[in-house]
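Me: I'm a chemist; would you kindly supply a protein sequence with its structure tokens?

Assistant:
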Amino acid sequence: MRSLLLALIGLAAGLAAQAEQGTHSALDDKASPWRLVFSDEFKGKGRPDPDKWISKEYNRRPNEKGPDGWWDPENAFLDGHGHLVLRTTKIENRNPGEDKDPYDFATAMVSTEGKFEQTFGRFEARAKLPQAAGWWAAFWLFSSSVNNVDGSGRDGTEVDIFEGFGWTDRINQALHWDGYNKAHQWVSSDTVVPGIRHGWHTFTLEWYPNEYVFFIDGQETWRSRAGGVSQVPLWLKLSGELSTSGWAATETWANKAEPEKYPDDFLVDWVRVYERIPDTDD
């Protein structure tokens, strides 16, 4: 009995270690209906793999609706420990005369635009969320066709697999279509996950021709067919944004950025994309 107990303790410890390292997935099973088609384990140091990712500089000016913060390519890098780092830093105000604040923020974005895109499938990232109030991290799918306006998201939908925040245990998942002006349509779901801002967590989307299904750490959190499910390829994006203006800053649970809390990091352990293996009866 003692030897059996010790064996069980050893097995439990081994599984816990695998979970912490993030090296094992149920999809490794040969019986899985999913086939891996894209991945990045973020090995090495320096810039993210240019064959997989691009990083653009971008600024949303203060008089525009939406989040604040520059996307600075220098704030996206590999740390040499198997992680992609998207860092947010305090910088001097780059819009003098337009904004009364003496400071601004630089964060980062990487995407597979022009490198990899897919219609339908399973999209996963294992990540550690930021800690500082005022900014949020996101893993999402996008295409320029999201700006088409025809009353439907079938020609392109922004799919927010998750938006995680440094000041709350809420995770936001959302769909946006018909552009971002007067015709803009969207639906979203908030899920409170105690402790989500600590440790590593896996965020998953299963995108089918007629439905989106969202998961956090393997547990289903939302499913939706809103807008009519996108039927066009979308590329991956990992990004940080700020809550100095727009919807996130006006939500009752939001906190604005506190400059003294920066720099702060959003870490990504890996990203994996799968396509569904057709059934033999198909």
